[in-house]
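Each field is set out underneath.
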Amino acid sequence: MALVPAMGVAPEPDPVSNRWQLEVTPGDLQVAYVNTLDGAGAYVYFTYSVTNNTGTDLEFVPSFVLTTDSGLSMMSGLGVPASVTDHILRSLEHPFMQDQVDILGPIQQGPENAKHGLVVWPLRDFGADELRVFGAGFSGETETIELTDPRTGEEVELIFRKTLMLRFASPGEIRVGEMGDDAFPVLEKRWIMR
């Protein structure tokens, strides 16, 4: 096992992965103002497609975190009523699109078995210049690092997972009523260990 250097630098993914990895095609980040029986609110969401070309069927359990340049960090789905997710799913008019719960489970091999997912967060930072989405569960690559907790002196293990990082630029002031169908395109897509 490797030790974290004194600078605290996280490990990097292997240039040639020796573990399974799914093929991910992300969509743009979208803004929606949704008025349901649960109330009205602003949300950000994106869709993605995932294909299993690994040679074996796998269990697919993705997780997503949205962060902003102001330090806000949110797990997907938290604070999002089911009625909002249902409304966005219907508006997409994609018969195979699944929400973040329904997509969980086996993913069979081949493009004919690709899954299509929707991920939603409440919009909490209207002044964000940059938004990042971290998606885990698309690769089996992990790295365990041992280090000493400076407070307790105990040895701790940190497990880093290969994670897809997507970076989106926003206009700096997100005005939901004026956004219409404008989307925030993916500026950067890369694999990191997180």
